[in-house]
Design brief:
Length: 266
């Protein structure tokens, strides 16, 4: 069984939702019949803005509505993250919310769990809760968002087949790109999974440069898709689930791993 994931590596227009939505629609529309999933970077409609609450939307706002219509029209699932707001008796909370939109089905959401204090993210967002496994076309997936990549326990595939494909959407700057390269590869091999990781290119409004390095690996660290420095474009990775399952059965390393519980107390 082959599952095809398109990695979209492009610049993000800083704080300009309409431009980013329009370009995303233009880039995903040709993928109809070519990909099962299109993976976008973190906060794909705004860039990594941690001081603009006016850019936040609800889960039934314009961004999710347009991505749902795009998915329904093309038959391609769409995943990424956006600035989400929720209101309750205590006021408004903002989240860096990951989404997985399936054609003609309800969306699945998962919030970023680890907030990047050095970039002020912990002052802007509320951190997420429990991990979420997404199932689509017979593939089990986890999504983690940018800084989550640094925390191996959060992504741990404890029972060997908790998930097949790890999705990473990020805004990871060039000045720390060596860490990105190492961590993406590590998460694939330690979890015996496929991994698909998308990072943008270009300059943001905070003065940071992004040089991409979006990539997809199999569990043996064979690169399935790679981008050159600062390369713009869309590339499709093909994941063979039968090969992955055979590899896990032949080499069930998870049985020797440590067992643990994650404490997500605030």
């Amino acid at each position: 069984m082959i599952f095809r994931t398109a990695l979209l590596q492009y610049p993000i227009a800083w704080g300009d939702k309409e431009t980013n939505l329009r370009l995303t629609e233009q880039r995903i529309t040709p993928l109809a019949g070519q990909a099962d999933l299109a993976l976008l970077p973190e906060m794909f409609t705004t860039g990594f803005c941690t001081d603009k609450p006016e850019l936040a939307e609800t889960t039934d706002g314009e961004t999710m509505q347009r991505m749902q219509r795009l998915s329904d029209k093309t038959g391609v699932a769409v995943a990424g993250s956006f600035i989400c707001k929720e209101e309750d008796a205590s006021g408004t909370r903002l989240y860096n919310r990951g989404f997985f939109i399936r054609p003609n089905e309800s969306a699945v959401f998962t919030d970023k769990a680890h907030l990047y204090a050095h970039g002020g993210e912990d002052q802007f967002f509320t951190r997420g809760g429990d991990p979420v496994v997404i199932e689509y076309k017979g593939v089990k997936m986890r999504m983690i968002i940018c800084y989550d990549l640094r925390f191996p326990v959060w992504a741990r595939n404890q029972h060997g087949d908790d998930y097949d494909l790890l999705l990473v959407c990020a805004n990871w700057p060039e000045c720390r790109i060596a860490y990105w390269d190492a961590l993406v590869a590590a998460r694939a091999t330690e979890n015996q999974c496929y991994i698909c990781a998308v990072n943008p290119v270009g300059d943001d409004g905070a003065g940071l440069h992004y040089n991409g390095h979006s990539t997809a690996y199999d569990t043996r660290l064979v690169p399935l898709v790679q981008f050159a420095d600062n390369e713009e474009g869309t590339k499709i990775a093909e994941f063979d689930l039968d090969v992955l399952r055979h590899f896990r059965e032949a080499l069930p390393l998870w049985k020797d791993a440590d067992r643990f519980n994650i404490d997500r107390q605030l």
